[in-house]
Amino acid sequence: MSAKDDFPELPPHLRLLKTLVTVLTGVMILGVIVVVGLLVTRFPTPVTAPEALQLPEGTVAQAVTQGHGWWIVVTEDARVLFFGSDGALRQEVPLDSQ
Asked: Under a CB-based contact definition with an 8 Å cutoff, are residues 53 and 47 in contact?
């Protein structure tokens, strides 16, 4: 008597269900691998501000944003400072503190 003889053959609807569950398991495993891969490749190393970016005396940065060829610094005293890619201050804009 073989191991196959110990179990009766599954009805067709259960064989279909077993196949669907197996396929769904494979798709979920591949999905997790794709999501992890995208997270690893889309989150590069943190951007560091250039050493040439000199904030005015007594200024404390609250937020920093980098674009192509520019930096924006929002300060704790409600100012927005625009810097060029060379680190030179280009413009300063006060924010309304309402």
From this structure: no
Is 63 found in the same domain as 31?
Answer: no
Nearest one of 83, 91, 92, 93 to 50, comparing CA atoms: 83
List the chain pLDDT tens, one digit each, 98 residues.
Answer: 566 667 888 899 999 999 999 999 999 999 999 999 999 888 776 656 667 688 888 888 888 888 888 999 998 888 999 998 888 899 999 988 66
Smallest CA-to-CA distance from 73 within 25, 60, 86 is with 60
Assess if residue 34 is contained within a domain. Answer: yes
Q: Phi, psi at residue 17, to the nearest 5°? A: -60, -40
Task: Look up the pTM and report it.
Answer: 0.50
Amino acid at residue number 28: M
